[in-house]
Write a structure and sequence with these properties.
Elements (H helix, E strand, L loop, with lengths): L2 H5 L22 E10 L2 E17 L2 E12 L9 E10 L5 E10 L2 E10 L4 E8 L7 E4 L5 E2 H7 L13 E8 L2 E15 L7 E9 L12 E6 L6 E7 L4 E9 L2
């Protein structure tokens, strides 16, 4: 299952990014997201997702080390038990990732990814393991704009809206497991978010089309609402699935 992976990624890559957008990041910051699932009689908060960022120096240059993790609430683990943990290091000036790892589990299935980015050689050196033995060590082609899940989530904040027009589409490659798969999204412009349980606020709206896998509804895109200003932080999202839908929102932010 890659639901939490997509929830925590959603957009970036080939979208024009602000160079060295320091205002979008705070050393030591942490966020908590609540994930709600509705399908049939099930209508409840089923998971939490946590994100954090630290400012570091990598090869003498400023970089960010980020963590993202998510897990289902214990009360729902008999129905679906999911664990996701992502770590990555990316450069502050151009958002290029240099290191990343992921550990994931769903019931008895588990998978581990360890990435080293070789931009000069044009590939990701991926060390891969899984409980079913299907994941093997591999060199994943490294094209311009390719990012892993956690780098994508934080790079999203630094989209340069001055270079985007409402209605414009982009395709992004997201490295996960042994491949890089495409996500197509559209920027819709500013829109007021007005949902039950949240204050009304102006946001930047995006929709995302995910055609990969058997989980997502290919006929209905993911919708993301992000804060305005220097940091486009996702605060609310709706993910239609083949069975039900996921709704999530930002619960707390230590910035």
């Amino acid at each position: 299952m890659k639901i939490l992976s997509i929830i925590l990624a959603l957009a970036a890559g080939l979208i024009p990014l602000k160079k060295g957008n320091d205002k979008a990041y705070v050393d030591g910051e942490k966020q908590v997201y609540i994930v709600h699932y509705k399908w049939g009689v099930l209508d409840a908060d089923v998971a939490h997702a946590y994100t954090s960022l630290k400012t570091i120096t990598y090869n003498g240059k400023k970089a960010y080390k980020v963590n993202m993790e998510g897990h289902t609430a214990s009360i729902f683990e008999k129905l679906v038990k999911v664990r996701e943990n992502f770590n990555s290091t990316f450069m502050a000036d151009d958002y290029k990732p240099v290191l990343a790892d992921r550990s994931a589990g769903e019931f008895k299935y588990w998978a581990d990814n360890d990435y080293v980015y070789h931009w000069d050689k044009g590939y990701i050196d991926a060390k891969l393991r899984s409980s079913d033995g299907r994941l093997k060590d591999k060199h994943i082609p490294l094209e311009k704009g390719v990012m892993d899940v956690s780098t994508l989530f934080f790079a999203f904040r630094s989209i340069d809206l001055s270079k985007l027009s409402a209605g414009e589409k982009f395709t992004v490659l997201v490295a996960l497991d042994d491949d890089a798969f495409p996500i197509t999204f559209r920027y819709h412009g500013a829109e007021e978010l007005n949902v039950k349980g949240m204050d009304r606020v102006m946001t930047e709206k995006f929709t995302v089309e995910v055609k990969t896998g058997r989980i997502f509804d290919p006929e209905h895109p993911i919708t993301i609402y992000a804060t305005t200003g220097e940091a486009l932080k996702p605060i609310y999202f709706v993910i239609p699935l083949r069975l039900g839908r996921v709704v999530g929102h930002l619960e707390s932010d230590s910035r």
